[in-house]
């Protein structure tokens, strides 16, 4: 299976998935750390994360798939939500909590 098809399968398989640098326990960039903190503050407990630093091919091809150049990247129900700035804005607006609940990852 081609890598783009694998990415498509991942975002469709998980109701909410965060492609980030590092892991939630050990984020490797400030933006990934902020995204994880915001998602946890919104109640995301069952969040699927993928460390793009562990897979250079994924790191190179995900921006082509999503049309989003930076990491982290949050997908919900197969659709790109955005990066850390958008995740934080959604949290501050009270929307992220609803998105997390609807994705069933609490």
Automatic annotation (TrEMBL):
Residues 17-81 form the Glutaredoxin domain. GO terms for molecular function: 2 iron, 2 sulfur cluster binding; disulfide oxidoreductase activity; metal ion binding. Keywords: 2Fe-2S, Iron, Iron-sulfur, Metal-binding, Redox-active center. Coiled coil: none annotated. [2Fe-2S] cluster binds at residue 29. Pfam families: Glutaredoxin. InterPro entries: Glutaredoxin (IPR002109), GRX_PICOT-like (IPR033658), Monothiol_GRX (IPR014434), Monothiol_GRX-rel (IPR004480), Thioredoxin-like_sf (IPR036249). It comes from the Bacteria. CDD domains: GRX_PICOT_like (cd03028). Belongs to the glutaredoxin family. Monothiol subfamily. This is Glutaredoxin.
């Amino acid at each position: 299976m081609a890598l783009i098809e694998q990415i498509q399968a991942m975002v469709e398989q998980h109701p909410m998935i965060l492609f980030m640098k590092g892991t939630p326990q050990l984020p490797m960039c400030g933006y990934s750390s902020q995204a994880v903190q915001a998602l946890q503050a919104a109640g995301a407990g069952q969040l699927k994360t993928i460390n793009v630093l562990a897979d250079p091919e994924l790191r190179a091809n995900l921006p082509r798939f999503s049309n989003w150049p930076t990491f982290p990247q949050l997908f919900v129900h197969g659709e790109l939500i955005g990066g850390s700035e958008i995740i934080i804005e959604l949290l501050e607006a009270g929307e992220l909590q609803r998105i997390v609940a609807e994705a069933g990852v609490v």
